[in-house]
């Protein structure tokens, strides 16, 4: 299914995009540019927010101003019986933030997990922020369960773990370090708000940001200590 001419692409944002930076479309424009089409079909998937109507309206308000054809996929009000055909018609799948545990459960119940994997392998670009970022990895640092940060098993399209909002939520960094040090989570990547990690196949190809000082990080466990390597993104300046 996957050929050299049809790369598998995932763009995972720690935070940002239309819902967090409505006046700063740099990351959203970058996502559209990944498709190489003049007006790509972009489907917003707001499952993690319980298919919030306000979230969907904010998506359309932002993307009708950009060169694309926007639509959305609600599992509470599906667009058609055949979800597979609907998803495979898209060029970009854009997953919103919210409760990752609920997202994973609903996607599996609807069979959307396998449909999205097929779409990814056939060249549809997968992207998202927060829950829409961590869901693609094997594991996530999540606040889906109230009380503390915990580990969540995710879809596993990408190896390792992921943590969003690394600078925006003060408990994220110490929680990731603690979970990794205890061996409860695998090594992986963290991203500040405004940072996007662009994976082609299994490889992290590019890191970009919509904020000049935002960063990404590679976290590893070495000799019972945590090694956190700062990864400097390319800042997407307004042209």
Automatic annotation (TrEMBL):
GO terms for molecular function: serine-type peptidase activity. Transmembrane segments: none annotated. Coiled coil: none annotated. GO terms for biological process: proteolysis. It holds the Pfam family Peptidase_S51. Keywords: Hydrolase, Protease, Serine protease. Belongs to the peptidase S51 family. This is Peptidase E. It comes from Iningainema tapete BLCC-T55.
